Structures are given as C-alpha cells and as structure tokens.
Amino acid sequence: MTLELLQAQAKACTACRLAEGRTQVVFGEGNPDAQLMIVGE
C-alpha cells in the first residue's frame, strides 16, 4: 500500500463515529523514508 492510497482511504473513512464530526483529516507531511516519525494531535 502506498502512502497516497493510505491517505485517500483515511480521508474517505467512515468506520467509526469520529467521521461524523470531523472537518478534515490531517495525514501528515515530510520525508516518507525518514527513520523517525513523530505523531501528535
């Protein structure tokens, strides 16, 4: 699975109630080959 496909699936996801009130999906940015990833809210 590519990051582009994963991002498209995240934007279209309605699998849980979070989708009802969200206004956007913030997928991320940066080097996809980075050795370190920081996840935040």
UniProtKB/TrEMBL annotation:
<dbReference type="InterPro" id="IPR036895">
    <property type="entry name" value="Uracil-DNA_glycosylase-like_sf"/>
</dbReference>
<protein>
    <submittedName>
        <fullName>Uracil-DNA glycosylase</fullName>
    </submittedName>
</protein>
<dbReference type="InterPro" id="IPR051536">
    <property type="entry name" value="UDG_Type-4/5"/>
</dbReference>
<keyword id="KW-0234">DNA repair</keyword>
<dbReference type="GO" id="GO:0006281">
    <property type="term" value="P:DNA repair"/>
</dbReference>
<keyword id="KW-0227">DNA damage</keyword>
<dbReference type="GO" id="GO:0097506">
    <property type="term" value="F:deaminated base DNA N-glycosylase activity"/>
</dbReference>
<keyword id="KW-0378">Hydrolase</keyword>
